[in-house]
Amino acid sequence: MLCLPGLAADDSPPGLCLFGEPCVVAEGRRRPLPDGARRLVAFTALHGGRVERRHAAGVLWPVGDDLRAAGNLRSALWRLRASGVDVLDAGKRLIRIRDGVVTDLDLAAQWTAQVTAGVAMPPGTDEAYWRHCRGGLLPGWTEYWVGPHRERLRQRVLHAMESLTRRVLADGDPSRATALARQVCAVEPLRESTHRILADALRGCGRPAEARAADAAFRSATARRFGPGAGAAVRAALTET
Amino acid sequence: MEILLRVLDGPRLLVGREPAPLPESSLRILVFLVFRRRPVPRRLVASLLWPDSDESRAGGNVRSAIWRLRAAGVPIDDRAGTGLCVRAGPALALDLDEVTGWAGRVTTGPGDRADLCVPAGVDAALDLLPAWYDDWVVFERERVRARVLHALEQVSERLSASGRHAEAVDAAIAAVCAEPLRESAQRALILAHLAEGNQVEAYRSFRAYHKLLEAELGVAPSPRLRALAPASMNG
């Protein structure tokens, strides 16, 4: 999990990781966030790195009155400071991610924007980001305010990988494109757009039989879950050729 | 000297890229006048911004805040009879104008190709000045929010039409993140998935919205939205 370029080196700025178990990476070491403060840190990071105190307290501690919620918020901030991983800057009204703290959320967003725009990254970068992000943002968290943000990052990462695979294929490396597409399909077995790219890549390698086999696997997976109509789009794409 | 008022991050005033050391009272007056866009009588400014102070004290607060703003180089129009006025323009740039300008262009017309790119400040604009609770801020916050949400939904559709599916999905999700219960935002997201040929993703988004609506409001999505879910998956 510490493999992100920009977080791994000893002299990198302190980093906050929210893919996987939330933790802080500083001086090459990872330290977990204290239990009482994890939700506050995650909430702040997901909301652009700044939240209003009353808003955070109300959402994170909905049971009880405002006074009690504000008290819970203060104790969360205190626990964070006491644990020595102080990544939040608490003002009278706003709580912010401290200046100079890098979040993997922002790094991932930059990476996906660049890859989707067609920028070639240094070797190994794309794989490192994919390994870091494929498990999803805050996996296992059921808080309602996490879901849309997790989905946003998931779509960005998947689109970035699809752009990358298409570019690799266009650059004439169908076997690497196949490997990339297979990795994405393994994590997202029900996504038509990735399956279309995988089929193209397999045909590029001169393996039409495997393209058909991959299609059959996709069809049965979607049919099991959603009935026979679900794979229509990918089937149409496959029968074109 | 270039003067920039940043309300998407701060608020703070940058004079020639350096932050001007202003107390919050001065910033509040400045933001208030910039949002109003037309002259406001001094006495009204004083009573709206310091409702709990008596008249002479509030008037003093206004005078000292205006004095500090002038010292920082902010052009304030002060005419007897009409009142105080600050307009964002060449002499005073407002970072929010980039986002609202974009939203206006997207919602009013077919728009330029350059407007297909969603500006970076959109997320901050959807939650303007979160730590300020005054009525005049709440009103402006809602106005900006409504405009930006509409623009995101429309730009998502146009991005899909020009084959830029990744950006189309992202624009729609930005609106969903800001307002998960808003059906038009969820509809834009489902349409963006379908335009990309991702029926399963479209269905998942539909299911997630269905569950959210049931849990939060106890209602089902409208028939118009249900019609978008592929027939074999409905239910």
Question: Could you characterize what this model shows?
Answer:
The complex is a heterodimer of chains A (241) and B (235). Chain A contains ten helices and seven strands. In chain A, a hairpin with a 2-residue loop joins β2 and β3. The longest helix of chain A is centred in the middle third of the chain and has 24 residues. Chain A has 241 residues and is of the alpha+beta class. In chain A, the strands form two sheets. Chain A has a four-stranded mixed beta sheet. Chain A has two domains: 89 residues, Arc Repressor Mutant, subunit A (Orthogonal Bundle), CATH 1.10.10; 136 residues, Serine Threonine Protein Phosphatase 5, Tetratricopeptide repeat (Alpha Horseshoe). In chain A, 57% of the residues lie in helices and 10% in strands. In chain B, a hairpin with a 5-residue loop joins β1 and β2. Chain B is elongated. Chain B has ten helices and six strands; from the N terminus they run βββαααβββααααααα. Chain B is α+β, with helices and mostly antiparallel strands and 235 residues long. Chain B folds into two domains: 83 residues, Arc Repressor Mutant, subunit A, CATH 1.10.10.10; 137 residues, Serine Threonine Protein Phosphatase 5, Tetratricopeptide repeat (Alpha Horseshoe), CATH 1.25.40.10. The longest helix of chain B is centred in the middle third of the chain and has 27 residues. In chain B, strands 3-2-1-6 form a four-stranded mixed beta sheet. Classes of the chains: A alpha+beta (241), B alpha+beta (235). Chains A and B meet through β4, α6, α8 and α10 of A and α7 and α9 of B.
